[in-house]
Prior knowledge:
2 helices; 4-stranded antiparallel sheet; 4 strands
Amino acid sequence: MPTVMLMHWPEVTREQYEAVRKEVNWEGDHPAGGKFHLSWFADDGFHVLDLWDSPKHFDDFVQTRLMPGVQKVGVQGEPKISISESHAIFVPNPL
């Protein structure tokens, strides 16, 4: 069952996100099991909504690619992450 990952990481800046995005290159080298990624900055900081094939796919990506990139860029703090099983998915016109 597809898995929804929600992340809130207040300490991340736009510049840091863009540096991690470039370093990890998830858009050019798609992670196994990754289906959808949406990020935004709100008054309370940085947020991400992802859709993954399974929690294991997300965990593998975090351990092997994301965290090494985050550490290289020097992002501080710890994200708050929640993982849930999806119920319904509808993407009529993504862009």
